[in-house]
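#onboarding

Welcome to the new folks! Below is a worked example of what a typical request in this channel looks like: someone posts a single protein sequence, and someone else replies with the predicted structure as tokens. Don't worry about understanding the tokens yet, we'll cover that in week two.

Example request:
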Amino acid sequence: MSSLLQEPSSIDSSIESSSLSSTTSSTTSMGISEPMVAAMFDRISDRYDFLNRLLSARQDLRWRKFLVSMIPTRKGGTYLDMATGTGDVLLAATKSHPEYATFIGCDISKGMLDVAHKKAVAMGLSERMTWEVMSAETIALESQSVDCASISFGLRNVVNKEKSLTEFARVVKPGGLFLILEFFTPTSGIMSRVFQYYFHHVLPKIGRLFSEKEAYAYLPKSVASFYSPTDLRASLQSKGFTVEKEINFLFGACRLVKSRRGNFQSK
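Example response:
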């Protein structure tokens, strides 16, 4: 299983950290660096699942289920879940696609991976999974080694998103799938105003009651600075992916994007 990894690390009771991106000194437009994002998620990891269910009225489970339903059947295949968080997608994928030989979950937050590992142990699935502290900007996997890759609610937290998409294009096999589940800012109608009010006023207050105020104040800012759906499609196309399907949830506030790796990769 670890033969695909360029820099393998321990995955049992302790999850060792590979080097984070060489660009970690850079920051997002909000002045947030990758180590700062990792530290923030480390602090909220023990309450992350509870707040996800609460803040989304458990819709996050439904959205992730849709993503897992798009994973193709690949006997002996390799599945990569980047920004895996507490492992919900990877755990569901492992149960739904036992024909895959390798399941890899990566995140920049060791605290989140610790929670994911505990959940995998409780479900009896830990021996089928590899957990790695790894940046989406420098994916330590061999080129064209992944049959299906996914990232759920994590791409907007990446500092250099273009570099990350280039890395996904490098590791996904030609003909392989890349699935993105993410929040976007709806741009029309009353739902846009409802979304903006909830994200900027209600969500941070609820987050402050149960967890860390700064983390849930960061969420709406990260969504506001993220790609538009049109820009994301264009970026994926420039990296060699073809967008085959998009599913909108919450009137476009959340989208699932299915893309397929072509036979070329732009520089």
